Amino acid sequence: MYLAKRVLKTWEESFIDEDTGETVTIERNEILFDRGTLIDQDTLAKIRFSMEADGIKEVEVSNQNRLAFENENSVL
Q1: Helix (H) or strand (E) holding 30
Q2: Contacts of 70 (CB under 8 A, 6+ apart)
Q3: What pLDDT score was predicted for residue 69?
């Protein structure tokens, strides 16, 4: 099995704007695993730990290793 999408750790940070005094909430993301990563026992253990501890919301898997890269369209 392979990861069909990136696995992201997501959390929110709140800051206080010094000028207005308003609280601003920003959603942060960290890429833990890239798409196309083979899910072996070590990777699976890390994903399970992160789901319980770090706030991974979803993991999409595939039985095919599909890597795609977007080509820059310089014609237009």
Answers
A1: strand 23-33
A2: none
A3: 65
Residue 71: band (very low, low, confident or very high) from pLDDT cuts 50, 70, 90? confident
- pTM of the complete model: 0.64
Say how far apart CA 5 and CA 33 lie, in whole Å. 9
The 10s digit of each residue's pLDDT in 25-58 is 999 888 889 888 899 999 999 888 888 887 787 8
Spatial neighbors of 59 by CB under 8 A, at least 6 apart, are: 3, 5, 7, 47, 51
Name, in order, each residue with C-beta under 8 angstroms of 61's C-beta and a sequence gap of 6 or more. Answer: 1, 2, 3, 4, 39
CA–CA separation, 70 vs 58, rounded Å? 23
Note whether 5 and 35 are within 8 A (CB).
Answer: yes
Closest CA to 6 of 44, 34, 37: 34
